[in-house]
Queue: 4 jobs
Job 1
Amino acid sequence: MTETMTAITSQSDSAAAGLELGTAVRERFNGAAPDAVVVFASAQHDYSTLLEALAAGCGTQVIVGSSSAGEFTNRSRGEGFVSLLALRSTTMKFAVGVGRRLSEDPAKSAAAVLTTFQGLDGGRMPYRAALVMSDALAGHTDAVVEHLTVASGGNYSFFGGGAGDDGRFHKTHVFAGTEALSDAVVALEMLSMHPIGVGVAHGWVPTRSGFRVTEADGLRLIGLNGAPAVAAFEDHAKATGQTFDLADPLPFFLHNVLGIKGGNDYRLRVPLGVNPDGSIACAAAVPTGSIVYIMETDKAAAVLAAERATRVALEALGGRRPAAALVFDCVATRLRLGQSFDDELKACAALLEPAGFVGCNTYGQIARAEGQFGGFHNCTAVVCVLPE
């Protein structure tokens, strides 16, 4: 049996916010400490102060999470908040893994994360998953997810995202216990007697023929079909009657992201800006040699994608009732949808009732689950449902 508690606070004082949440957790579990806590916090907070107060209040340092760019539960959402999921279970076990210096050696960081995992050699709990939060601004999130998958023998489902900082794109943090770390990746291992469901979906479709990525360097998309990358977007804007302001391209980019063709689906990448040489700064790397498409969507498609991800995650429970869920979507999705982002969250809540959920807007989403397109995504709904 798994007991859960979801909570959110708009308290701006970090010590008070941590104490408020920690005290609420203790009350929910009749004075007992939780087995694990997941927490997401706005960049407005002093993370060390928040985490220390939370740990003292709830009685555990088995804490994982990150800074974020919008926080929510099934009941409320906002910016500048702290959201939390607390867990107590007789059928699940938890462990915290930390990998530092992510930008220097993602393989080494992934290996460090796995040193604390208890399910690598099997054991009596057959279902294995991990919440993974990465400093996306350090790069290499795609690589670290791949290394985690290979090093764990493909026996874990991974889900989570890249830490945010309220859309500033300056510095992001991941949480492990009472530590707030940059240039790092953290994970909460979840071993379970019952299936854990992970669903991933987006509502974007290609608008025209694809482009070959002829040159790229890290987060810079330099050439498409041998021409400066910006040319493809300029041509697309003209063909579709959209405004594309090189001095302020983000409004255009939020509605015209890139999709990397892979199998029967597309991994999305959000362009962020135009460099003087005509290259495009992206939120995540676009591999040289890949085929990419300019993608489009609408508000209804975003809601349907969130519903689809939630349904897939629920179906993976094998008929068991959900105890709680973790939900992630991109900060770009929130910015594009505005108040309509509430419709996406309401769709998830309706499917999960009476279970609650906690989540945040991230700088990219992580999903690696059997039978689904995986890796590091942008503008994609990722839902993990935990069984009762």
Job 2
Amino acid sequence: MQTDPLYEAQRTWDTIAESFDITRRAPWKQCIDYITSLKKTDVVVDCGCGNGRHLFPAAAHCSSAFGIDISKKLLSIVQHRIAEKNIRNITIVHADLAHLPFQDNYVDAILCIASLHNIKGRENRHAAVREMYRILKPQGTALLSVWSRWQDRYRAYFTKQFFVHSSEFGDIDICWRQHHLNVPRFYHLYSRNEFVHELRDEGFTIENIEDARFHSKRFPDNYFALVRKIIS
């Protein structure tokens, strides 16, 4: 019997939520640069907000922020910090990124950082990007990041898989091993061209795409795309 991908994703991230929170506190510079470029009056959605490491800076800079995640335990961590800090302009929502609970043209900006690549199935990833496009206001922007397929750590693996793969090329299970855990997490690692085409296919105009190296020495391990919704 095949496991429901959403249930599987929620169970995985609930299992590692506390460990993830301990090890993922510092926001990324690319995200802070994007957040500080937004207007103070903007409404922001953080799609796949995790423990809120980018959600809280977004709320501090903008008028309001929504945090969306599949993991109830990660959202519980965020909710605890909201109460602890007495923050009034953050709303958290338990939801699937392929079905965002917002009206069309509702938000000014979107963060989707290291989340899209955890969605199983090409159609589901496209649906998530399509949903982000739908809820953005015309001229609204989004910053998305994904892991690179051809980074140093996995380059040899995917070179071999190119000739023998049976699932979607780029799919891989990567185990979370912090704090004595051993929990496989689904990833779809992107080529740069695949990331670009996926964003353009769902209507976005790409304003900038950046290769980033956090752990790799030679090849980028992340791609960041700044996109805009332009209605002609």
Job 3
Amino acid sequence: MNRFQRLWLDLNSSLWFVPGLMVLGALLAAYGLVHLDQTIGRAWTRDYPLLFGAGADGARGMLTAIASSMITVAGLIFSLTLSTLAQVSSQYTSRLLRNFMRNRPSQVVMGFFVSIFAYCLAVLRTIRGGDEHEFIPSLATAFALLLALVSIGMLIFFIHHIASSLQAANIIAGVAAETEATFHKLFPKELGEAATPAEKAEMADAGQLRWVPVAASASGYVQGIDEEDLLAFARETNAVVRMEQAMGSFVVQGSPLVSVASYAPGALNLTGDVQQRLNLGYAIGRQRTIDQDAGFGLRQLEDIAVKALSPGINDTSTAVMCIDWLGALLALLAHRDLGSPVRAEGGQVRVLALRPDFASYLRTAFDQVRTNAAKDEAIYQRLLAALRTVAQRTSRPAYHQALRQQADLALAAAEKNLTADYDLAPVRQQHQRVLAALAGEG
């Protein structure tokens, strides 16, 4: 992720960028229509007195009424948006706020009302009447009326959108869809060519290399890594780059960000410019983002489930929906190659990447849900059902081992927290189904 991609992602998730562009477009439209009115004159408007028959005072009154009503409605929309953000943060998780801020329909609706206000002000100042040389921009005024009529539908749409977006099912499905898109983008994602067994054996002698750490220039969360640039640097300097910080991890300024070792004899000279280039390969910000951090999407769903299981909310149905979607996302990963941490080019190992494996994704998705399930039998059942679904999608021994571990942990937690055999019986049955799926029997 380079600096321009990061800037675009930051702009895309702001509440002001799209409305600002729409206000600029409204001002340009006002100028264009007023100029058109000035060019073609008003003689043709006499043929349509009901549409363009307003005088200077009438046009001023209408534009003033539209402008004042639009800014009032814009204030209402901003209030509803802030209220929605506060409710989502308290009821679900504050990690979802960025998702709502980058919601395109909300940005467009806010921009639409503010841009109408700006448009009316721009047209209003061009109207001349009385003792002045009379000028009434009929087309521009009529277009303002059309925008005001469209705004009624936009307001109704926004209220419907807010009511729909606050439903737990839609919030969870939206996070899952965004996470799935990230999975499709990242896996399989290769950096150079996959290392051969011989090259991996060569790296077993990495202790002979002299690693030089490169310190991070800022503190924050790793939001993106420009792997192509790291590969290019390793190629240009005949070196190997070892990532010390993984995607989504928190970096402290001055701590090692990457380490570099040269294949050539002698120590590697890492000048200030070289260290700056390596730092620019990492996008570091104040919070995690989902664009390159696939585990963050799983973390969001897990946070919603844990919040739903808290005593203050106690919403089992929402937690169950989160587990269902987590199972669907992990099933998607189960038959995908998550990539080798060892990458090579031209027969030479160039980059040692830090990549999460399938077991770490399983832990991210289910560990906190399991530990917060307490005496909720439905959670254990659904968690084991999700593990069974994932087990049916893969035949890799390492994946089976991780799934078996999660299933055993879920059963152990259920046996510890559930005291009645009536509650334990279906959980044990689900555990047996998971084992059967791992054995290829269903």
Job 4
Amino acid sequence: MYSSRAKIPSHWKLLAAVWCVIILLLAGCKGIPVEGEQKSRQNLNEVGGSYRPRNQRPVLPSLKTDASLSDFLNFTVLNQPRVESAYYEWAASVQRITVERSLPDPKLTFQTDIADIVMSLMPGLMMDFPGPGKLKAAAGVATAESEGKYFAFELSVLQAAFALKKAYYELYFLSAKIAVNRENLELLTSIEKQALIQNEVGKVGLQDVLRAQIELERLTTEIDNLEDSRNPLMAQFKAALGLKAEEAEPPVPQKFESTPLELSFDKLFATALAKNPRLKAMEAEVRMADASIRLANKAKVPDFSAGIEADIKAYPIMVRPSFSVTLPIWRDKIAAQIAGAQAGKRAAQARLSSEQIMLAVEFAEKSFMFRESSRNLALLRERLLPKARQSLQVAQSGYLSGRLDFLNLLEAERTLLEFQLSEVEASVQRELALAELSLIILGTPPLGAPILPREAIQSKERKP
């Protein structure tokens, strides 16, 4: 006795089961990480854990006038959009390593023969296999690119820190300039009173009083200009912190903090060559170009495709395996790919050499600026300023006793003011030179910055 329901042939059941298994396997497939991929992801997770945990901005340090400069630097690094942009560009480049080393997606195929009726029904599976070594070479290019992107991120951190320090020093020394000018304003007011007294008793003419008043007006205007210049400097300070125009004005740290740096210039230059992030990025470009040459040479290797189809209309089921291979016969194209990659490497090496030369020039310039400003500070503080103060005291006594005219007294006051302002200017130049040497040239990150140790990002095997 037969059932009223049509039976499904057992081979169809088997085929359906096989297809279900294939689909489930494909849905859960993972590739095999290549050398450097796991390390790159580990580095990204390590930095991201402190810089952008769960891709969210961490709690920013509280900014107060009594906060340390380190708090402001940490705020800058975590809040500056340029740093965030460089971080996510690095993160994207790390993800590209997995993309480049992965096999192409398999393809489900379907073929049928139709006359008056469906003669055959052939579902199948097709897979492309790049030639041996091609995926590894492509992943090598992506790995070297990710290293370069990391150093670009590191450089953005250092540049953000330098921009903040520059604005901070200029604001601090602006206050010092204003204080110097106010001190001299009080001194000129006292000199004006002396001139008035001398004029009232007939010892000097009205010209001395007018000269003192002219200097007072000039100095008052200079103070007003300096006070007004605080606005653009505050805008720079606010921008360095990554704050938008509509956000509230940030406080400025009141305590002055210099850049610590152990100065032995021979050792410092060797450190700069080993740690400068611009050089490291250029070295990564050379490694990427070298990997590109290896990838271009793989163009000589054929690619493969393999697949299988089954005619489920036939009984028994007919299975049709297929196999194809590319034929890399265009030798001029392959030669051009290799030559182009080699030219790219030579260009990268030339850029690296140029950057090394420029680094030596910048190091020499900033080192000279530091030494020059240090000598100027020592000269002003130890010799010129004490003598200028003494000269002014002598000039005041001589003017009151009638032995010295007003122009000599005024010249002594101007000399003291000039030396005091020169001291402030030399201090600014010294601190800016120190900050640039430490951050931009030596690549020394601020305390707590999300920077990897140098050995963590670059392996010995990939050094150019």
